[in-house]
Amino acid sequence: MNVLITSIGKRVQLIEHLKQEHYIIGVDCNELVSSKEFVDVFYKVPRYNEKSFIKTILDICKNEKVDLLIPLYEKEFFDLCDNRKKFEEFGTTLLLSSKSIIDICNNKLNTYEFFKKSNISTPVSYSKSDIDNILYNNNEKKELKFPLIIKPIDGMGSNDVFKINNEKELSFFKEYVDNPIIQEFIDGKEYTIDVLCDFFGNVISVVPRERIEVRSGEVVKSKTVRNKEIIDSVMNLCDKLKTASNDNSISIVGPLTIQCIYTSNKVIKFIEINPRFGGGVPLTFESGVNYGKIFDELKSNNFNIKKLHDFKETLMLRYDEAVFK
Predict the structure, then answer these.
(1) Sequence-ordered list of residues with C-beta below 8 angstroms from that of 295, at least 6 positions apart, any chain
(2) What is the pTM of this model?
(3) Which of 48, 55, 81, 261 has a beta carbon 3.0–4.6 Å from 99's, enabling a disulfide?
(4) Beta strands 203-215 and 218-224: pairing type?
(5) pLDDT (tens digit, 9 = 90+) per residue, 3-37?
(6) Which domains, and CATH codes, for the chain?
């Protein structure tokens, strides 16, 4: 099967895993990316916000006879969704959830509202206007409990994520961080959960990964954990997310990367949902979930979901490598 992956950057392990089963076409707006050396063929493409971006991707899908299109960069998602049927005309399946699901996931305030509406436990969150009302209304100041976490509503990774310890810091960072969301700080173990869904919104695999050590927003030490409470809670979340789609024909599709905190009192607080592969997903591959093989079965309609895909508990210790030319 021919698989096109966008914004490949340094996603070498993802590419190497899928390359075991498929012919991999990689694209990026930057030609100096390490993953370029590991794909079967590479194309430099326009940036996501250039008018020629979609046409270029469509042309590549047509010329390379692409079966499966896997986008990795959130800012591409809406335009790709808008052109899903055009890709299908070339026989290309877009491995991406519906536009309404992406709208829930890519805006952290929308995610928070979804969690609240669905009775899913999550940290209390505030918009900038909420905070302004609290700070400048003495009757409401008692609502705020420090520390807090502030980050961009549409942020990715650890960029512009700060811990706030007092009102003075809050006053500064709410202006410093562009379009922020401010969240209650939750102490506990952090987990990222790799979820894979079929083309009809059915969950195939749920693999929790404990985040032992993180550097610049990307996990460097992690282990997969068979935590039934987390797995069951994620299944409940996915059921509710599936019904939140406004599109009749499509809901949750392909990868979801879900983050939660597991407190010492065994309370699960969900933080984020990302409708794409996370940076630590190679650990899930190594734990026994062969995404490359599953993609083949999904495309050929040979996949029969009787129970969640099994996985083994595995430890990952990452290190840096380099490409020299």
Answers:
(1) 1, 3, 18, 21, 22, 68, 95
(2) 0.96
(3) 81
(4) antiparallel
(5) 999 999 999 999 999 999 999 999 999 999 999 99
(6) 2-95 (3.40.50.20), 101-107+187-317 (3.30.470.20), 124-184 (3.30.1490.20)
